[in-house]
Every structure is written in structure tokens, then in C-alpha cells.
Specification:
The structure is a single chain. The chain is mainly alpha-helical. It has one domain: Globins (Globin-like), CATH 1.10.490.10. The chain has six helices and no strands. The protein has helices at 19-35, 40-44, 50-66, 75-85, 92-109, 113-138. Helix 1 packs across helix 3, helix 1 packs across helix 5 (92-109) and helix 4 packs across helix 6 (113-138). The relative contact order is 0.18. Bound molecules: protoporphyrin IX containing FE.
Length: 139
């Protein structure tokens, strides 16, 4: 599994620099997620309005990468709810698949400082979210 492939040669791709870039990244990522045999169901059974979800996630990543504050939500709370809705079946492996698809999508489309930041932040956030889900279960 290629999660940490920062050492490969440059491919001449541009870096992320606008909301349009972030939108392309997020929509391409969710196109893969929806087809994923490992994690697709969590999303397909929860999200009814994909346009709204993709727009929200574009806000989230724009806020994260460019510090333009557009997203104001509570991801730990939302993911605890998702875990509860699926009878606490979310595992680290699911987060691993999520991350693999994210890294793959970033690498297919972009390269540079922001592309690296998008991968690094997702790794941190995946760890943090899973820890929050796990500790919420014990209560
Ligand atoms: C296996 C891992 C994951 C699963 C199954 C998952 C699932 C979901 C689902 C089903 C929603 C929609 C919830 C709803 O509309 O009710 C959602 C929202 C969201 N996810 Fe994830 N997610 C995962 C990992 C991540 C990671 C690693 C990040 C960040 C790097 C992330 C960021 C978000 C954000 C920002 C939202 C929107 C929250 C809001 O409504 O404000 N997710 N996720």
C-alpha cells in the first residue's frame, strides 16, 4: 500500500492553488470513494445530497489549505454519529482505505507544497478522528 510515496520523481503536475483545484480534488476523491468496496457503503448509505457534501468538503479543504475560513463544522461529532449509525463498525482499516484513496487522488492530480500538506493533514486528521470515535465508544 503506497501511503508514503513522497520520494517518487516529479511528474510536472501543478500544485493546488485555487478553490477550483480543491473542488477537482474533492470531487475526484469522492468518485473513487463511492465505488470503493471497502468504504463506499458508509458514504452511499448516509449522504443523500452529494452536491452539498462535495461543496462542504471543498470548504473544509479550502479552509485547511489556504486558511480562508469557509468551513465551520464539527467533524469529530459527525464521525461519531456515522460510527454509531453503523453499530460501531468503523475501524482503522477503513481509515487506511480512506487515506489511500485520498493520497492516490492527490498524487494523480497535483504536486508541490500544498499537495504535500493535503496528504499530511489528512493523515493527522484520520488519526485524530479515529481516536475521538474510539474514546466516544467507551463512554
Ligand atoms: C473511513 C473513514 C471515513 C468515513 C467512513 C467517513 C464518513 C463520512 C460521512 C458518511 C460523512 C457525512 C456525514 C453526514 O452528512 O451526516 C462525512 C463527513 C465529513 N467527513 Fe468523513 N469519513 C471518513 C474519514 C474522514 C477523514 C479522514 C476526514 C478528514 C481528513 C473527513 C472529513 C469529513 C468532513 C469535514 C465531513 C463533513 C462534516 C460536517 O458535516 O461538517 N472524513 N464523513
Amino acid at each position: 500500500m503506497l501511503l508514503f510515496n513522497e520520494n517518487k520523481t516529479q511528474k510536472g503536475l501543478k500544485d493546488l492553488s485555487s478553490r477550483e483545484d480543491v473542488f477537482l480534488l474533492v470531487s475526484s476523491f469522492y468518485a473513487k470513494v463511492r465505488k470503493s468496496p471497502e468504504i463506499g457503503d458508509f458514504f452511499n448509505q448516509t449522504i443523500t445530497n452529494w452536491e452539498e457534501h462535495i461543496s462542504k468538503l471543498t470548504d473544509f479543504w479550502e479552509t485547511n489549505l489556504f486558511f480562508r475560513v469557509r468551513y465551520k463544522g464539527n467533524p469529530p461529532k459527525v464521525h461519531q454519529q456515522v460510527d454509531e449509525n453503523f453499530d460501531n463498525r468503523l475501524t482503522q482499516e477503513h481509515f487506511g482505505h480512506w487515506l489511500q484513496l485520498w493520497v492516490q487522488t492527490v498524487d494523480e492530480l497535483f504536486e508541490g507544497e500544498k499537495a504535500m500538506a493535503a496528504k499530511a493533514r489528512a493523515r493527522k486528521m484520520a488519526t485524530f478522528l479515529f481516536m475521538r470515535i474510539f474514546s466516544a465508544r467507551k463512554k
